[in-house]
Design brief:
Blueprint (H helix, E strand, L loop, with lengths): L1 E10 L3 H13 L4 E4 L6 H10 L6 E6 L24 H8 L5 H20 L4 E6 L10 H10 L4 E2 L16 H21 L9 E3 L9 H9 L4 E7 L19 H11 L1 H9 L2 E3 L8
Helix pairs in contact: 1-8, 7-9
Length: about 290
């Protein structure tokens, strides 16, 4: 049996991203979403969740340690001179550190604050993942696992995707190297899940479809989807022309709208039915 979670990342980044994600949810093709705790449009996202009746949708914490402002106070190592996270490249280098107790303490404090913020809003959290997959970086992984256990979040994302999963198409070299980095960190992280009491999906897809999600590309990836439970990461949203300059300016682009149109395409439902792939949110347990 093939079961597929289609999870939209970055809910709360801006209102255009929120609008796109909820269009996918209402169409029945987005079955799960990860909420950005420090996103500028977090309150809009929470309002939409509380206003709807989403029985077959799961919600998760999309931990952010790389962009925007922190949720906790008293943080220093994670932040640049402007009081915001260091940004994509610098944060990656920082989070690759091992056995840095001071850094790990700050990460634990910030992660706890981000999860608590979502919990106190009344949103039940089924899963935990990371913006730009920060949760599987060496300085973060152990802390993230402990936070999931402490907050009783049953599922955690492990982004270990074989490059051959979308072999019909090729990514630009920088994106391909990025995908390999995340997948390698995910592969290492999977071995740490055993015995933790946490669940992860059997398979993960989406790294090699980033920025090029189309009906044809998705069909190619689904054609070789293995049996079991798979999480497919997507980034749908509506395009915003001339957005304000913020760390989230690039979140609502033409590529995001193209992803959304793919997920809204009637052909996708036909493909899923023909391939006997069952859409599902994150379940209560793997079975």
């Amino acid at each position: 049996m093939k079961r597929l979670i289609i999870n939209a990342d970055d809910l709360g980044a801006d209102e255009a991203r929120n609008a796109g994600i909820f269009e996918g949810i209402e169409a029945g093709t987005v079955t799960s979403a990860s909420i950005l705790p420090n996103g500028p449009a977090l309150q809009d996202a929470l309002k939409r969740i509380h206003a709807g009746s989403f029985r077959n949708v799961s919600w998760g914490a999309h931990l952010n340690l790389s962009e925007g402002k922190p949720v906790s106070t008293g943080t220093s190592l994670l932040l640049g001179p402007d009081g915001a996270f260091w940004g994509k490249a610098s944060s990656r280098r920082l989070l690759m550190r091992r056995e840095d107790r001071g850094l790990e303490a700050e990460i634990a404090k910030e992660i706890d604050a981000q999860i608590t913020l979502l919990e106190t809003s009344g949103i039940p959290l089924s899963h935990l993942d990371g913006h730009q997959h920060v949760h599987v970086f060496p300085a973060v992984l152990k802390v993230a696992l402990q936070a999931a256990q402490r907050h009783h979040i049953p599922w955690i994302r492990i982004p270990d995707e074989p490059e051959s999963s979308s072999s019909d198409f090729s990514l630009p070299l920088p994106l391909n190297e990025e995908a390999r980095l995340f997948s390698g960190l995910g592969h290492t992280a999977r071995s740490m899940i055993s015995g933790s009491g946490l669940y992860t999906t059997d398979h993960f897809r989406g790294l090699y479809l980033k920025g090029r999600l189309s009906v044809q590309g998705l069909q190619s990836a689904l054609r070789v989807l293995p049996d079991g439970l798979t999480e497919l990461m997507v980034h749908p949203g509506r395009f915003v022309e001339n957005p304000p300059e913020t760390p989230y300016s690039g979140f609502s682009t033409v590529e995001r709208e193209q992803e959304l149109e793919t997920l809204l395409n009637a052909k996708l439902r036909f493909i899923l039915e023909k391939m006997e792939i069952i859409l599902t949110p994150f379940p209560e347990s793997p079975n």
